[in-house]
Amino acid sequence: MTLTITDITTALPVILKYIVPGFLFLKIFSFLSGRNDYNGTYFTVFSAVISYFIINIVHFVKEFVELFFPVGNFPENLKFIAYIFVGVMSSFVLYGLCNTRLPRWLSSIANIPNKLAKKTVKDYTTVKFFNWATKRSINKNIWRDFIDYKKGTTFKIFLKSNHTVYEGKYHAYQEKGFDSWFILKDYTRNDFDTENKFDYREHGRPTLAAINLKEIERIELLYDNDTKIVK
Predict the structure, then answer these.
(1) Cα three-residue angle 8-9-11, rounded to 5 degrees
(2) Taking all residues of the chain, what is their mean pLDDT, rounded to a whole number?
(3) Torsion sign across C-alpha atoms 38, 127, 154, 182
């Protein structure tokens, strides 16, 4: 089946209607809250889901108002403006709710988008499904696809400059291009040139190691036997 220009121009308003309101909602909310959770391919999926809810909310309000004041049918371009307006205003309202002292039950409802986003990027079944369907990672940070947040993941990091190997549990990762950093906890360090070794168990205190991506030659990931990451 070949798509024509007419088919594309006909479908474009529908695509915009089900993407733009949710897209603006997520972008504004993530900017206001200083979060980077809403990134990657799944961003489009969330935009569509949120747009769907926004459209239904607008239709519900219109039907409710018509019970008292007949307003008739609105042109599609006016409906689109209404969807965008609701999407933009909802992001400000949600941000305000998340940063206001509220009853616990109401605060929990306001934080549902944050919890849903975090659960999606860390849910192994969801990640594998999207990887299979799209042939690419759904996360902007691809390491999220391979880190076992439940069982833990051991990183074995080999440096470029010398024969030094770090091995420890994944603790954090700061993504900043070639200036990204890996943070390992409870780590060991082996320098095979100088035979200088470090073992957190001999140190007697909690330990962290920060390693810059530019210094890394390769990384090996080690999992527990019951991990779901590589099955």
Answers:
(1) 65
(2) 76
(3) negative
Burial label, 60 (beta-carbon count in 10 A; 0-12, 13-18, 19+): exposed
Hey, what domains does the chain have and what are their CATH numbers?
5-134 (no CATH), 146-222 (2.30.30.100)
Candidate from 41-45, 53-57, 112-116, 173-177 with smallest mean pLDDT = 112-116
For residue 162, what are its two tokens? 């010398």
Assign 3-state DSSP to the chain and report helix, strand, coil percentages, each to 5.
50, 20, 30
Q: What is the pLDDT of residues 133-145, one digit of tens each?
A: 555 555 666 777 7
181-203 per-position pLDDT tens digit: 899 998 989 887 777 788 877 77
The values of phi and psi at residue 165, to 5°, are -125, 130
CA atoms within 13 A of residue 128's CA, in its CB half-sphere: 8
Tokens of 143: 């390491």
- Tell me the HSE value of 73 on the side-chain side, using a 13 A CA sphere: 2
